[in-house]
Amino acid sequence: MRAVCWHGKHNIQVDTVPDPQILNPRDAIVRVALTCICGSDLHLYNGYIPSMKDGDILGHEFVGEVVEIGSGVSGVARGDRVVVPFPIACGDCWYCKQEMYSLCDNSNPNSWAMEKMYGDTGAGIFGYSHLYGGYSGGQAEYVRVPFADVGLKKIPDQLDWEQVIFLTDIFPTAYQAAEQCGIREGDTVAVWGCGPVGLLALKSARLLGAHKVVGIDRFPKRLELAARECQAEVINYEETDVVETLHNMTGGRGPDACIDAVGMEAQGTGIEAAYDNVKQTLKIENDRPMALRQLIKACRKGGTISIPGVYSGFVDKMPMGAVFAKGLTLRTGQTHVQKYVPPLMRLVERGAIDTTFIITHRLPLEDAPMGYRIFDHKEEGCIKIVMNPLAASQATH
Q: Is pLDDT of 396 > 80?
């Protein structure tokens, strides 16, 4: 089959690789209908996530059709159209029983490495380094899905692939980030980053009752989309002081909740941005936390900081004194996608939200290297790329 493979920093190729096989009775094989390049895939592309190996198959956002099941799978059958949540979860451990699927104790075969680095383990993730299990990803024609009865969610017949593709990751991620804010009637929620997760976080905050949402970015097209599709007030951080502007917009108090949809590759201006860029380049700091520092300063006293953006390790110059003095609540973590797919699928079914407005590029799988470059450089107004490997898949499997 054909698959998008990692061969080093900025070196993505589409290779011919062996088809996946059933390895465990609880496995299923899914033929991929649509797959996406996620913002967090760019962290792999840019070489910021450790433990990648030459030839690793990328991708953790994909939907498709079940073509083979193991003897222990009973919840899905061949021919079922399914959404595949990006965390791999056993369904049996204490964390899965609490619906904290991304913290599964049993799905990461390299848990020792994560325990050594972070003090505890987390779930395996498709196509996201050997730290997260070394699983082959979904930017391919076929994927092996472990714990299929937990990790596959059936798609209603009336919904097409594009309507559900973002249920694999970014819509639940955005929704969880907004839900973590504990939004109350009349609240203002500010979102740093108007990429795919940020835009859907603005939408989700609206769905959860926010009175005012504010989108912060530097790309005019993204800010236009936030204003038009999410009814957000917008701030271009290259043109104004973000913290001062937010305080002016909220009567001097600051937003009730702030969402960091940027993460470890934040851009910025001035000496602070240069400081983080140099430290990350020299590998004496893992992540560039410019946006996160700004969130902490901007949020009102007693407010909530929600962090769906990915961070990988150690950051510098964090204003922990402000977190303490202002009594802020920090909420973060990988998304428990399996928990959110059913209710969010119902929202899509009844037309309460249409997430397809973020799609700017539709590409064949073979164009993945170009897609990564376009997305990384934010060329052509790129916000979200979806790739369709299905035609090639039918010809080769």
A: no
Buried b (16+ CB within 10 A) or exposed e, 84-106: bbbbbbbbebebbeeebbbbbbb
Q: How far apart are CA 118 and CA 149, in angstroms?
A: 29
Query: What are the pLDDT digits (tens) for 40-49?
Result: 999 999 998 8
Q: What is the pLDDT of residue 245?
A: 98
- pTM, two decimals, is 0.94
Q: Above 90 in pLDDT, residue 323? A: yes
3-state DSSP of the chain: CEEEEECCCCCEEEEECCCCCCCCCCCEEEEEEEEEECHHHHHHHCCCCCCCCCCEECCCCEEEEEEEECCCCCCCCCCCEEEECCEECCCCCHHHHCCCHHHCCCCCCCHHHHHHHHCCCCCEEECCCCCCCCECCCCECEEEECCHHHHCEECCCCCCHHHHHHHHCHHHHHHHHHHCCCCCCCCEEEEECCCHHHHHHHHHHHHCCCCEEEEEECCHHHHHHHHHHHCCEEEECCCCCHHHHHHHHCCCCCCCEEEECCCCECCCCHHHHHHHHHHHHCCCCCCECHHHHHHHHHCCCCCEEEECCCCCCCCCCCCHHHHHHCCCEEEECCCCHHHHHHHHHHHHHCCCCCHHHHCCEEEEHHHHHHHHHHHHHCHHHCCCEEEECHHHHHHHC
Residues whose CB falls within 8 Å of the CB of residue 114, separated by 6 or more in sequence, listed in order = 108, 120, 121, 122, 131, 132
Tokens of 126: 């498709």
What is the three-class DSSP state of 45? helix
Q: 115: part of which helix (H) or strand (E)?
A: helix 111-118
Phi, psi of 32 (to 5 degrees): -75, 130
CA distance 224 to 220: 6
Percentage of the chain modeled with pLDDT above 70? 98
Neighbours of 15 (CB within 10 A): 13
DSSP-derived pairing of the beta strands 304-307 and 329-332: parallel
